[in-house]
Amino acid sequence: MFMSFDFVYVNTDSLAPMTTVLPPNHTFISSDILDEERRIYLDSLQSETNIRNIPTFIFLVAMAMIGLFGNSLILLIYSGRKKKTSTIVFIQSIAVVDLITNVIVIPLTIYVLFHTWGFNNHGLCKSFLFINLAAASTSAILLLAVATVRYRKVCVPLGWQVTANNAKIISVLIAVFSCLSSIPYTVVHGIQLVETGRPEVRGKECRVDQNYVNTIWPLVVSLVSLVIFLSCCIPLTYMYVRVGITAWRHIYAFDVSQADDAKLPQNTSDDTMDTKDSASDVQTKTDCIELELKDKPNEGLKKDVTSSQQTICVPPARRNLEAIGRKIANHTTRMLITISVVYIITNLTTLILVFIRSLNPEQMLNIGTVADSMYRLFLQIFMLNCASNPFIYCMCDRKFRKECTAFLRKVFCPQCQLKRNCGRNRK
């Protein structure tokens, strides 16, 4: 969400002692220099800037290619699943936004960086800033929606839960809200005239619109975007902390119950076990929990009606299934927490760098070429979000990893398309 701040940093050292902003309605025409000389000088400034941006260009191209492949794979894999949950719907929505970033935002960012001193397309500048901010806002709010789903499933399991259809409607509403909230930012930003090292030469860059320079409106829209970002990060952090604490308590309680089961006597001669003894042994190993049931008990649960209270006896097999379910839920929660942490850290890093630049603009002009290149690179570190999610899914979701492997084998291995084992065929 830091995109509300100007991320195009200008530094030409000896070529331009300091970049300053011209007053509104300032004309670009100068009678002291010919247009050809002006163009040559601006090209020289752009060449110097491009050299400093080489690490940034490499990083952006890599993120675009990796994200395009990874997010397309996410959509293909999750679209093929028969059972759609609200979490899967939100993951698909995030993948769509990341694809928009890979296909549209990153190429436009590279174009803007290649035209730092001579950006003349007013409409393209506004379109780039609008899509950039709308995509960032949508991703942040979708992550908040996913955190809410996990919070309710883990901390409020008996309450109302978000269904897959609800998730689809929520995703559309989030996209609409993000687009509407990005309009004021787009109005305020546009082509801005900047001074260079030569007073008679003026440059143009995609930043704050010249009509709104030295007004309060750029600061207002930036603060609004910052408030939206913080209003997503703070509750998101709170809910995942609560989810983590609750999940840890569940794991601890399950470990205690397993330790209690280990103390019970077990019959190791399964082949010669009598039917009655087996039944009594199962009844001995069965955990009984006293509950006040409001609904009918599920099939597979035994109900002891002789007791003064209703007692549910859960067989070991069912407890194993519940343990597996808890394990899968914990993996999913860990995966979503990792995605949210990466998003917050990368955006916060860029926000801090922009803040440092605004506090000490003159000091930033004196840093060396290598330091300036690294600074420009880390200003774009937030683009890591649009390419990192597929790797996180592969590391945390075993089912997704298997489905990806099977899909890639079908695409790149003709033998697997014939439903043959690749290893056996090679032998």
Automatic annotation (TrEMBL):
Name this polypeptide is given: Neuropeptide Y receptor type 5
Gene Ontology molecular function, alphabetical: G protein-coupled receptor activity
Family matches, as Gene3D superfamilies: Rhodopsin 7-helix transmembrane proteins
Coiled-coil zones: none
Domain G-protein coupled receptors family 1 profile: 70-393
Alphabetized PANTHER family for the sequence: ECDYSTEROIDS_DOPAMINE RECEPTOR-RELATED, G-PROTEIN COUPLED RECEPTOR
Lineage: Eukaryota, Metazoa, Spiralia, Lophotrochozoa, Mollusca
Transmembrane segments annotated in the record for this chain: 57-78, 90-114, 129-149, 169-188, 216-241, 336-357, 377-396
Keywords of this entry: G-protein coupled receptor, Membrane, Receptor, Transducer, Transmembrane, Transmembrane helix
Source organism of this protein record: Biomphalaria pfeifferi (Bloodfluke planorb)
Superkingdom of origin: Eukaryota
Compartments where found: Membrane
GO cellular component: membrane
